[in-house]
Each structure stands twice: as structure tokens, then as C-alpha cells.
Amino acid sequence: MSDTKTSEMRFLPIIGLCLLFPLLRMFGGEMATGTPFTALESAFLIPLIPMVIFPVIAILGQMNHGDEAWRERFKEGGMIALCTLAISLSLTIWLAIEFFTKGSSFEDPLRASVFNWINFETITQDAAGNWIHLKSDSLGVGLWIDNVSMMLLFVASFLCFLICWFSLGYMNTDPVNKDRNHRFYAEFVLFTAGMLGMVLADSFLWLFIFWEIMGLCSYLLIGFYYERPSAAYAAKKAFLTTRVGDVFLLIGLLMLYDIYGSLEFAVIFGDPSLHGTVDVNMLRWALIMLFIGAVGKSAQFPLHVWLPDAMEGPTPVSALIHAATMVNAGLYLVARFVPFFDVTGHGHGVEGLGDVAILIAWIGGITAFMAALIAFVQNDIKKVLAYSTMSQLAYIFTGLGVALWFYNHGEHHAAVIAFGASMFHLFNHAMAKGMLFMASGSVIHEMHHAHHGSHDEMDPQDMRNMGGLAGKLPITSTAMAIGSASIIGIPLIGGFWSKEGIVAETWNAAALHGGTWLLVPAFLILLTAGMTGFYMTRMWMMTFAGKPKTVYADKVHEHTPWIPTPLITLSVISLLGGFALAVLGATHWLGEAEAFGTAIHEHGLVFAILDTIVHAFLPTDMFLFLITWVAISISLVVGPAMAMRIHGGRLKSGESAPRLISWILPLSSKFGRTQVDDLANSGLADALHRRLYFDELYDWAIGKTVIPLAYALSWFDKNVIDGAIKGIEWGSQKISGDVRKLTTGRPSDYIMMAVIGTFSILILLWGVI
Amino acid sequence: MSTLTLISDPQTATALLPEFTLIVGIALLILIPNLGKGTFRLPIPNTNIRIPYLFGGERFAFTSSPRIPGVISVFTLLFSTALALWSQMEEPLSDSNVWCIATTGEAFNSCAGMIEPSLLKIDGFSRLLEIVFYGALMLCGVAMWSRMPATPRFMIHAQVLAGRREDERIAKLLDNRRQVDFHILLLMVALGMSVVVLANDLFVLFIGLELASLSSYVLVAFMKENDEAPEAGMKYFIVGSVASAVGLYGISLLYLWNGNLQISELASSWQAMDSIDPLALAGLAFIVVTIGFKVSAAPFHLAAPDAYSGASSPVAGVLATASKAMGFVVLLRVLVSITMPESGEAFWVPVVGLLAAVTMTWGNFGALSSESPKRMLAYSSVAHAGYLLAAVAALGLNTSREGDHVVAELIVAAMLFHLTVLVLFKLGSFLVLSMLESEGRGSKLEDLYGLAKREPLIATALFIFMLSLAGVPPLSGFLSKLLLVSGIVDATVHNSMTFDDGVIAAIRSLHWVFLLALFVFLNSALSLFYYLRVGWVMFFEDPPTRKRLVYAPFLRITLMLCMVGTLAFGIGPLADHLLTLVSNAAETFFG
Fold first, then answer.
1. At CA A496, angle to CA A493 and CA A502, rounded to 5?
2. How far is CA B40 from CA A279, B53, B68, in A?
3. By CB neighbour count within 10 A (0-12 exposed, 13-18 middle, 19+ buried), where does A32 fall?
């Protein structure tokens, strides 16, 4: 532990200085223009600085390969990355402060044009041949900052910073990564630039560009251990699967451009109905195309197959890209649909898009249920979390679908609540899941460490090798417990506040507002609430409760520097942040940009807290009251209790869990014991282990269609095209050789040729006349 | 006309300042290295009074330094270039810049009202080309500063020296002598080329041609220490003299036909002909043969690869740029100034078009498998001659929109632009090879292996030169090729062109010269192969040694200037300036 302190303490002043970057920027403005730069004027630096630092780390890493100072002082580029992200974070916080103090609403986002890149003039020629100026358009870079992007911006830069911090412990102490961490940090920073840029983009075009940068980084980072065939395969799979979505996204963007003649938010959101002239059918298909892109990025059914495999990447990557940030890009894109749907009188939406909203909710419901089901049988700790991520993102999709449905049916209040709850869940989930992945990383790291040097095979990620770690990894196990509670939706903790909102609003739409089509997703996500309780508890119990299942699990202890700090930070946020934000009115702020803390301001703190609790637990509508309590009871009691019955148990004697969670272990042992071997060997379990055969299905389908075509094209390329080129090359060389033989080296031959040439010219000229 | 008039007439002296400068330079090259402690003993018996007259005897150390001749010749050329530029500074298109030198030696401001036949004509066109010649020769001279010792440096260690200081002194003196020889010849070439481009009379032109050619034969053979140079020089001389003889015969036939060799007289006689006189036709054909040799057009080019690879690289560079430009000037003078009809297609278009097609194809195929970079560049120079000949063929179509010379001017401007920027990147690549040559290599492609690892900057320069030769945007080689092709297209594409019946029919409706433009494209694609191969071996092969190349600061600076010029004349304001310059020159050519 002393090592932890010194290692981190040594760098703290530098990071602190980086956090003071906004002061420098203000001072710079003072020097340059006489007035300090505002946060908005500096916001373009948030993605730009990581973008610039990316090549710096990559090049420095190549130059200082294996250098001792580079490894120790700079942590192979990690320190540079951390400082960069600290600067981005500080600028984000500065921007947030300015955003809150100046205030703004969804209708009126803060906008800043950074520069105009290319100007287009559309001109045409009329019948008389005169040039007429039709319109001018510019391809510029700008920023679009409203409450949603502000929230995501904060989530992204905050988690990037913390996970980078975590990586300094996780990556740099692992000998496998020695001398190649600069690649990790460079790509990490580039990814951050992509994410922050995507959130700040003021047009769908730039959103798409940064979206692709993220996709690239995701590919590179999943394949970080490219020497492992499974990692290389997973990287390719992730890239190609998301590419399927991206192609649709691009089609959707082209359709949008066709409709609106621009991809800028300001133009499109100004009046998405174009004074009622927009063809609903066309817009519907454009939105569906965009949604397919989002489905690919956020790993939803049926493009979900890449996410579990993506866990081949280093754990910080899983935490950052595949749990906390990149997979939210799809949600962000769907959240941007609101102006198209808003016919509540607050916007210029287009009527008749309800079916798109229902499609979104259905995809969400199906994914939530399916992913939770598969998570039941996963033994790899990261895979459980991966499926959990899919499931929770699906919740948000359902919530967004419901919100869009409400918007399109003119229910403003319900729409705002559903939208706000979804976005709030995004926040809670990102915080909790980022932490859970880091905690799992901690477990894996320590397991790996304990196993290091022994000769037999052991998968450090397999939970069947763990057990009883609660006493050995106090910080990790506490963090994991809090994170799991937040994901499950244990009342009063983190995700509860948002998940309740989503479930309640879905049922509200389905049962009380005539959205019959929404009944299926409503059922599915209610069921999933309980299933979440089961698989998250199962994961925690298998890892931390009971007796150690291998000798290695017995030797584990927490000692790696850099790892605990982010865990503790996020634990606090997950434990208290949800409640605090709920009381402050996060749902309303995210939904309709109502100022934070309106309720506190008007009625006082106590009333606000009571109001929040009453709203959550005692809805006035009897039906919603029922739904709420069903959800609470199955997620709090049924699911966890079943999991405890199967996997629970006290620790080895002599060990005790940290105080905060020590009550769980005795409790878990009180539920008795059920042997589930029969069930675990059943056909259903097998189907779940094989991920409901989706991979087989895709492999089969691709094998029947794409692969033969690819072979045919490859044959064509090899034989026809290459053959032609080779033929040309061979022929040219042959002709060249023959031609050069004419240069004999004897002047008499040259003169002979000249004479022939002379006579040819004479004869030709004669012939012409 | 006496030499005295030439100098005493102030107008003539002013008009011919650059050329007089060259003559002064030659005189200085002869005089200065001979300054010494020579004395003259007064012929009084029993006395030993010696009057120093600073000539002969033991040479001064300073004046016999091996550097001096090079400095003199380069500064002479620089001075001439500056004067040539200065003479065209004001009002580029006005008559005040045009001078005609009559046979009496007097200079007249306008050639139209002259009674005496004019020998030389000075205008924007000739001045621009003079600048090109001087520039190319200057680059050659600079490259020779660090080379060309009496005994090539890579062989010096094999010599056994007796008495170190004395040997050094003698070696220096010998160096100096050789340098003097070389640079005198260089200035002679410059003078000959100036005469060619200024000549207003075919015979004067021929004299200039011979002056330049004979000097260049010697230059090719100058590196007599190795086996190749004398052989190459000999071959070049034999084939060249045959070509010159044929050309002289052609000129004599023209004289027989017209009784006068004035270009303007020949032109008006040609216009007056009802049907073309066989005598004139044969004379013209023979002159074209000479030009074909000068610009290394197929099938008269065969000695060129041998000559280029045998000569030292800077000399080969001069042959590939200045010499070729001179050839094209003669071609324009003969074909356009004399035989171009008032309207309609010139009769020589098929011949020149065929020559162009054969030349560019032959050149490219020859270069494709050449192992020696110098041979490769020689063949590429043949191919470039083909491109220019295609432009000349298009010029012969005499396309005119509303009776003006716009299209023709565009083509001539394109040719001039090409010839100008060619000096930068063709001679530039020869200069790089010359650096390799000073360590005794450079005749094989292997010698370029891994050059980027030895000299990144030099290799980058060579790569840029290669790209420019291939015509890759945004380099000046691209712009010049683009101008040439667009000139051809402009000359052939007509307003009534329609694609209604399909592309094939549309192309068929065009003059066949249009196909030459396609030919240029195809050949450019082919040429990329061997140009890029140079880049490939420089950057991706392993060098035989890690040693840096010879330290030649001025040559390096010159190379960098060439590289910057290759870039700057391809795009941006400098390219615009050059374009204005060449279009003015083209206008004066027709004006």
C-alpha cells in the first residue's frame, strides 16, 4: 500500500496543475484579446487537445521504446494521456459551470462556430446563359451544447479520466504490456477525442465522422493483444458488425440530407417538418436507417453479437469503450431524434412516426430480456458485465422509444419524464458500469498476479476459479457491491431512480395511454428487472462469497497502485449521486432543461427529498403503484434471493468482509442451497451458453452468401484483373527488352537507323503532297 | 560588317549585352588562370632588367586555384541571365524590347522596316530561352565545382606522389587547367545556343548549332579517365556530325530553291508557292532530321542513351534540357515560322505526329527496363521529346478561333513552360546522380539503393524530381504536361462536337491528332513504373553503405532550390508568374 501512495502522490501535483488549465486559457485570452476567453470559446479544445496528443504519444513511444525514464516517469505515455484527459475534464467542468450559470434550454442550445472549412456555392445557368446564385452552404465545424450533450460530455471526460487513471495501475504493472503501452494510451486518447468530438458535434456529419473514429479505436483496442487469435478475431467481428450498422447510418444521413439539404442540427431541428411539407414515409425510413446505425454501435439485437467478444480487449478498454462511453453513442443518436417526433406544441415534429418509436422500444425490450437471459449462465466475469451492459442499454432504448412515442402522441409531460429518466439511466449506468468493469479488472489483475509464475492453466477471468474474495479485496468487493446494487436498482441507490422511471413510463404508455404495441417491451423490461437482480447477485456471490474455489483465489490481495482511487470515487458517485441528482431534479433537467434544484429552491430541501421519494415509491395512479412495487420486489427480493440460494455462502473462517457489505454474506447463507446441476446441463442452458445460436446463425448465413461471393470475386481479382496487369507488365518488359536491343552500341547501326528515318520522313512528306 | 561596328554601335552593344558578357567570360577564362610572375627581360646586353608583365611564368596561387574557372563561368552565366532578364523587364510586349541586328552590325528597334537583311532578332521569346539555357548551364557549372579534378578523387589514393607540396601544387594547376577547358566549352555552348535562338537566318542558326554541338561533343567525352566517356563522345560526335551534314545539305537545298536563307524571306517564298517545290521539301526534311537528332526523337535518338550514360551527369543534364530546348527552337523556327500556311493544316502534321507517337512510346519502353539510372533518364528524355513533338503536331493543325493565334500561342507557351521547368527537375535528377558519381558510382540502379537512409533530403529531392517527371500533381511536371495536353485538346476539339452518337463517334469526329493526347496519357501511365521504381529502391532497399554523400554545399543548395522550384512552379503565385512570362514569350514568337 505504501507503494500505492508514493506512486500516485508523486504525480498528483502534475495532474492538479493540468486541472488548472482553464485559468491558463482565461489568462491567455486576457493577453490576446483583452478579455478572458469564455468556456464556450475554449470548448473546441476539449476534443482537439486529445486529438493532437494522440500522435505525440504514438511517436514519443516509438522513439523512446524501452527507455527507463519513459517507462517510469511517463508511464509509457500514460502520464501524458492522463494530463491530457485532465485538461479535457477541467475544460468540461468549466463549460458545465458556465452552462449552468448562464442557463439554456433544449430549444436554445449554446452554439459556437469554430471555423468554416469549405464553402459551397450552388449556381446554375438559366436559359439565357446567365449564372444565377442559388444558395451558399458551408461545411464548417461547430459546437452544439445542450443539456443532453453536456451530460454526456461530462460522463465521457470524467470516465475517460478515471479509467485512464485506473489503466496506469492495470496496464503498466502487467509484464505482458511492457513496452507497448504507448500504443494503448495513444489509441485511448484518440478514442477520447472521438467521443468528446461526437458529443460536441453540431451536425450529423461531424457526429458520423467522430463516430467512425471511435469505431476505429474500438477495433484497435479490442485487438490490442493482436498476437492472440481470439482477440484479432473479436476485433474484426466488432468492426464488421458495427460497420453493418454504420452503412445504414450513412444511408440514413444521405436520406436526411436529401430531405433537408443539410446535416446541421441547427437547420434540421429548426423545423423538422419543413412547414409540414416533409414526407413522413421518407423521414420514417431515414430515422429507421439511423436507428440501425445506433443498434450496431450500442450492441442491440440483432447486431449485438460483437460486444461479448469485445471483452478480449484490455479491461480498461472494456470499461471505457464497451460499457461507459462508446456504446452510449447510439443512445445519443436516438436521443437526438426528439425534434423529429415532438408534436406536443413545443417543437415542429412530424406526426405519424409512432411506429418508429415502437420499433425502438421493441428492440430495447427484446435485447434487455435476451441479454439478461444469456447473462444467467456466463462464467466469465467480464462477459456477465458485457451482457449486463447490453441489457441496461436496452432499457434506455426502451425508455427513449417510449419517450419518442409520447412526443409523437402529444403527451409532453410523460414524454419529458420518460426521456429524462432514460438519459438519467444512461448517466447512472455509465458510472456504475465503468466502475464495475474496473472492479472486475481489479479482480482479474489480482487473480492473474496470484497465478503468476505457476505452470498450470487457469483462466483469471473465470468466476468458477474465484470465490471468497470479499475479505481479500475489500475496496473492490465494496465497489462491486455498490455497482451491482445500482445496476439492479436497489431502492435509493443510483440506477433505481432512473430505472423506476423507465419501467413506470413504459407501462404508463402501454396500459394507460393506449400504446398496446408497447405492452410486449413493457412486460419484457419488467421481467428483466428481476433477472438483473439475479445475474448481478450471482456474479457478486460467485466472485466474493463462499470459500475460495482454487488455491490462487486464496492468495489474492489488493496491492496494485492507481487502481483503488477511481473505484472509490465512482463508488461514492454511484451510492449517493443517483439520489442527490434525483432530488435535484435530474430527470426534469435532462428532459426539458428545467433548471436544477427547482423543487429545492421553491419548497426547501426536506420537501424535495420527500417529494422525490413519494414520486418514486407511491405513484398516485393505482396501476403504476402496482407496477412499481412489482418491479421493486422482484429486483430486490426475488432475483437476488435466488442467486444467493445457489451461489451464496459465508467466507472462510478468520476472514471478514469490509463493514459496509459484511451483512450480505451471512444473509446469503440463510437462503439454503439448491443444486442446479440438472438445470445447468439442460438444453436451455446450453442454448444460453451458445448465446442463443446467434453467432451460428450469422456464420451460417454469411457462409452461404457473402463467403462464396467473396471467393468468386477473389478468383476474379486474382486471375482476371491481376492477370491482366501481370500480362501488361510482362509484355511491357518484353517489348522494352526488344526495343533496347536496337540500341546496339555501334554508331554505324545508329547511322543506319537515322538513314532509314530520313528516308521515311522523305517518303511520308512526298506521300502527303 | 566588322567586329568594330558591332562594338562601336551603342545600340547593338546594349542589345547584345548578355552575349557580349559571355564572350568577356570566355576571354577571362583564358586570361586569368594564366596570370603569373612572367617577366620580360629587356634586350639590353649585360643587364638583367626584367619587366613583369604578369602573364605566364609561375602562376599566382590565387589565379591558378582550381575553383577559379568555375566561379568565373558561373558568374558569367549568372550575369548574362540577369542581363537577359533585365532587358525584358519593362513592358514585355512592346516593341522597345525587340531588336534586329542587321548585317551591317547596326541594331534596329523594329524588324519590319529594315532594308538590310537581319541576322539576329532579340525578343521576349529568344530571351526567355536564353535564360533557360544559361540556367541549365549554370547548374551544370555549379555541379562541376566540386568535381572534375585532374585525377578523379576516387582514384587519387592509388597514385604515388613524390614531394608532397610540389605535387599538390602541380595537381592544383592541372585541376585548374582542366576546369578551364571544361568551363570554356560550357560558355561556348551557351554562346552557340544563344546564336541559335537569336538567329533570324538559317545559316547563322546553323553556325550557332554547330558551335553548341561541337562543344557539347567534347563535353561528353570530357571524363577521359574512364573508358565510357570517350567512347560515348565519339559515338555522339559521329552520329551528330552525320546529322549536321544532312542538315547542312538541307539548308543548301533551301538556298538553291530560294537564293536566300532569311527566315522571313523563306516564309514569304513558301507562302507564294502554289504547290510545294520538291527541292524545298527535301531541304526541309533534311533539316528535320538534324533537329530530330538534337531533340533525340526516334529513330535518331539512338546515340543519346550511350552519350548520356557515358558523359558526366551534369553534362548529360545539359544535353537533356538545354540542348533539347535548342532543338525545339529550331523546329519551331523551321516548321512554324517558315512553312506554316495562312490557314488550314500544315503538310508536315502527319510526319511530326507519327514521329511524336513513335518517340514517346520508344522512349518509355526503352526506359522501362533500363538498369542504369542515367540511361533511364535518357530514355525518359526521349519520351518527353515525344510529348513536345505531339504539341508541335497540334500546332501544325493551325486551329484558329476567329482568326487569332490563341490556340497556337497556348501550345507554344505550354512547350516553353515545359522546357523551362524541365531544367529544374530533369537536370536536378542528373545533379543527384552526379553526387553519386563523385564516389565512383551512379551507373547502376543498385547505386541508388537506400539513398533515403544515407541522405534523406537528397533522396526526397530525387523522388520529387521523379514524380515531377512522371507528371504527378501538384508538381510543375504535372502542370506542364497538363498544359501540353490541353493545348492538343484545344487544337483538336471543335465546337460542334457532340456525344449524341456515343463517345466513339464523338472521338472519331475529332482530328486524329487528338489521339496523341490519349497517347500522352497512356505513356505517362507507363512511365510511372520506372519513375516510381527509383523511389522504391531509394526508400525501401538497404543501402550498401551508411556513408554520407560528398560534401558539396553549393550543389546541395542548388539541389534544394531545384526541388523548391519544382514544387513552386507547379502551383501558386510563382507558377502564375512563369505562365505569364511564357505566354508573353509565345505571343512575341507569333507577333
1. 160
2. 109, 7, 26
3. exposed
Amino acid sitting at position A254? L
pLDDT at position A119, please? 62
pLDDT tens-place string over residues A426-480: 999 998 999 899 999 888 888 888 887 777 777 888 888 887 888 888 888 888 8
Cell of A669: 447463507
Residues across chain A: 769
Q: Are A640 and A488 in contact (CB under 8 A)?
A: yes
Q: Which residues of chain B have pLDDT under 50?
A: 1, 150, 153-156, 158
CB B463 within 8 A of CB B563: no
* All three cell numbers of B261: 536563307
Q: Looking at chain A from residue 674 to 733, which residues have their Cβ under 8 Å from any Cβ of chain B?
A: 729, 732-733
Maximum distance among all Cα pairs of chain A, rounded to whole angstroms: 116
CA distance from start to end of chain B: 28
Q: A761 touching B, CB under 8 A?
A: yes
| Cβ contacts from A onto B, under 8 A | 90
Q: Please report whether residue B56 resides in a domain.
A: no
Choose the mutation target among A743, A764, A766 for the interface with B, i.e. most B CBs under 10 Å.
A743
- Cα–Cα distance list, A359 to A249, A338, A363, A526, A536 (Å): 16, 15, 6, 18, 28
Query: What ipTM was predicted for this assembly?
Result: 0.86
Distance between CA A688 and CA A376 in Å, rounded? Answer: 8
State pTM to two decimals: 0.67
For strand A110-125 and strand A131-145, is the pairing parallel, antiparallel, or unpaired? antiparallel
What is the pLDDT of chain B when averaged over all its residues? 85
Output the nine-digit C-alpha cell for B366.
526503352
Amino acid identity, residue B18? Answer: P
CA–CA separation, B457 and A668 (whole Å) = 73
- Neighboring chain A residues of B292 at a CB cutoff of 8 Å: 757
Range of the domain at B583: 340-591
Residue A708 to residues A254, A377, A700, A704, A742, Cα–Cα distance (Å): 30, 35, 12, 7, 50
CA gap A197, A186 in Å, rounded: 16
Torsion of CA A516, A522, A527, A533, to 10 degrees: -170
- Number of structural domains (chain B) is 1
All three cell numbers of A35: 478579455
Closest-CA residue to A531 (of A628, A379, A388, A648)? A388
Q: How far is B456 from B462, CA to CA, in rounded Å?
A: 10
According to the model, what pLDDT value does residue B158 have?
46
Residue B293: name the closest of B303, B307, B285 by CA.
B303
pLDDT of A106 above 60: no
Best residue in A735, A736, A751 for a mutation probing chain B (most B CBs within 10 Å): A736
Is B453 a domain residue?
yes
Task: Inspect the interface and report whether the beta carbons of B289 and A743 lie closer than 8 Å.
Answer: no
Give the count of alpha carbons within 13 A of A715, CB side only. Answer: 5
Alpha carbon A310 to chain centroid distance? Answer: 12
Q: What is the largest CA-CA distance in chain B?
A: 105
* Residue of chain A nearest B276, judged by CA positions: A769
**Rounded CA separation B360/B523 (Å):** 7
For residue B299, cis peptide bond before it (omega within 30 degrees of 0):
yes
The answer to whether the beta carbons of residues B173 and B150 sit under 8 Å apart is no
> Is B17 a domain residue?
no
Q: What gap in Å lies between CA B34 and CA A423, rounded to an integer?
A: 94
What Å distances lie between residue B10 and A121, B4, B16, B102, CA to CA?
Answer: 59, 11, 10, 14
Q: How far apart are CA B121 and CA B99, in angstroms?
A: 6
Any domain includes B398: yes
* SS3 sequence of B6-21: HHHCHHHHHHCHHHHH
- The answer to whether residues A382 and A315 touch, using CB atoms and an 8 Å cutoff, is yes
